[in-house]
Every structure is written in C-alpha cells, then in structure tokens.
Amino acid sequence: MKTEVTIGIPVYKSVNYIEQTLLSALSQTFLSIEFLIIDDCGNDGSVDLIRSLQLNHPRGNEIRLIHNDINRGVSYCRNRIIDEAKGTFLYFLDSDDVIEPDAIHVLYQSLVAKNAQISYGSYEIIDNSRNVIHKYQKPSLFLEGDYKLATFAFKNINIFHVSVCNSLINLGFLKETGIRFIDASYWEDMAFSTEFAIKVKRAVMVPNVTYHYIHHPDSLSHLMKQEKCLRDEIINNINVLNYLKNKTLTTKDREYVPFLCFNLGLNSFYMVCNILKKKRFINPPICLREIGTILYFPYSLCDVLHFKERKVSNALLWFLNVMPVSFSLFAIKTFVAIRKLI
Questions:
Q1: Which of 307, 249, 255 is nearest to 148 (CA)?
Q2: What per-residue confidence (pLDDT) applies to 218?
Q3: Taking all residues of the chain, what is their mean pLDDT, rounded to a whole number?
Q4: Which residues face 9 on adjacent strands?
Q5: Which pLDDT does position 228 carry in this prediction?
Q6: Phi, psi at residue 38, to the nearest 5°?
Q7: Are 341 and 276 in contact (CB under 8 A)?
Q8: Contacts of 316 (CB under 8 A, 6+ apart)
Q9: Based on the number of CB atoms within 10 Å of its own CB, is 86 exposed (0-12), middle (13-18) or buried (19 or more)?
Q10: Is 229 exposed, middle or buried (0-12, 13-18, 19+ CB in 10 A)?
Q11: CA dihedral in degrees (245, 247, 253, 255; nearest 10)?
C-alpha cells in the first residue's frame, strides 16, 4: 500500500535528543507513516539509538535509515529527504524537538478536507523541563488563490514562523515547484519557507499546537544569540538574506512584495544591531563594506513609492542603503541607543 506520510529527520550529533524526538514521531496516532532518517555522519552514538528503536519498537520496521557518505549539512539532508521520501505528504522534524501524538492526524485531516498543498500547525517553544517559553498560535484559516498565503505570511510574520518544520506538505506539488534548500548552514529554512509560500495556492492553518521546539542553548538556531559570534556564521546569514532580496526583483508588482521587503530589511537592520552589540567578540571583524552589503535594498525609491503598503518603512530602509555606510551606522547607533537595543 502507498505510504501517506513521510516524517523526515536529518540527524547530526543528536545523541542527547534523538531518542525522545523519534519516540514522539513513533507515537503518532496516524498509522500510514514512514520515518525517514538521514544520518549526516555525526558519529556520536545517535545511529545506535535509532537502530535500537528499529529493533525494539512496535513501529521499528517503519524506520528507514539512510547514511550520507560524509558530513554534508542540513540543507543537503533535507533535499535528500525530498528525493527519497515515499509518502504522498512530507513532514520535516528536527532531531532535537518533539511533536504531539496527534500532530500528523490533525494536519492531514485539515489538508485533505480542503485539498490544500500545505497545512501549518501551531507550536510552542519550551525548555528542557517542558516549561512553555513562548506560544505561537495560528488562526483557523484557509487561504486560496495566487499569493494569498505569501501576503498573509509576510504581513503577519509574528504568526507565520519561517521554520520548515511543523507543516505537512504535498510532496508531488513540492517537487513540481522545483524549490530546494539552498546550501547554507543557517537560515536555509527561511529561504525555503519564503520561496515555497509564494508558490502555494491553497494553504490551511490550524490553531492546534502540534510541535514543541525545545530551547537548547548549544543548538544551531541560537548561534546569533550567543555572546561569541563567528564571522562565517554572520556572512552566511547575509548571503541568505541577499539571496531572498534578489529573488523579489522579478516580482515587484505582486501584493506580498512590500511586506517581504520590509521583513528582510528589518532582519538586516537587527543583524547590524547585533554586530554592533557583539563587535568585540567577532574575529575577524565585520568591515564597513560588509555592513553595506547587509543593508542592501533591492528596489529604487521610485519602486518603493509605488508600493501599496509599507511605503514609509521601506523608504527608510532604502535610505539606509544609499547613504554612506558611516552615516547609516551613525543613524542605527542613534536609534538603538534611544531604544536601548545595545
């Protein structure tokens, strides 16, 4: 029989978390699932735990473990999941998080009922003791039509999280779009989620909390929050943001563009704030030319003035881009000092 859902889990140095993650996946009330795990050569004992579950868990024969030849990174692993998945629908799960027992059932039912291309669940950020740090609850909503999801998502970024996890995707539709994870070690899911949202014509959101992001201070998603920042991490973030900014240049007349430009510009602004805050910990330092690259804005002022939304905020971001970098930095320092961001 055809497998309905693939839960795809990239695994790299997850020995402290992978067992609870995989047990939460294996506990799903939905029955037609393959659990596709990509081992990215962490060599830390994670694979031993997975093999033990393959042998001893009642659903162990539904676990499919694939090994990379060398460590290749999370983007490669997720692309391999897309290529290898046997399910009609695909669900990404990080190897240090957990999902509710009815997560797949809830998302599958909502997706099938509306013949949607993707269904998004709500989620919580929790600590290792399962205390809720923050809850992100989506409305009960069906969005249909060209760019309706993109417009809603980029206008309500506080509701629409950029992570690729906690959504059930029609795998055939995903393959038709040709969208892949770009080669990046951080924010690769932002690029994927942004590009995919633009392509979707039928999307469902559900208020049910189906996913729990566990706050681990040493995880990749908290690198920019740590005191010591590596230069390569920052450059990687800049490249992802500018990749998305350049992507908008071919779509400037679409209704979602003002919101997307503002979100990307605001991310860039706060990245500069973070660099200023932690500049003594960044080695080698970020130079003025690179600061200018972060503040890159893809449109002209004329384009911005033709936007139907976010004209003023996008115009301010445009000014930060065209001013000499030293002037832009002075303006940013003044703003953050007033707002006590540094």
A1: 255
A2: 54
A3: 91
A4: 37
A5: 52
A6: -105, 115
A7: no
A8: none
A9: middle
A10: buried
A11: -70
The 3-state DSSP class for residue 86 equals coil
Does the global pTM surpass 0.85?
Answer: yes
DSSP secondary structure letters along 220-283: GGGGGGSSS-BHHHHHHHHHHHHHHHHHGGGGTTSTTHHHHHHHHHHHHHHHHHHHHHTGGG-B
Among candidates 278, 260, 247, which has minimal Cα distance to 341? 278
What's residue 222's pLDDT? 45
Q: Say if strands 33-39 and 63-67 run parallel, antiparallel, or are unpaired.
A: parallel
Residue numbers of the chain with a pLDDT score lower than 70: 162, 217-229, 340-342
Q: Which amino acid would we find at residue 266?
A: L
Residues 268/296, Cβ–Cβ less than 8 Å? yes
180 to each of 10, 75, 78, 219, 339, how far by Cα in Å? 15, 8, 9, 23, 38
- Burial string for 256-269 (b: 16+ CB within 10 Å, else e) reads bbbbbbbbbbebbb
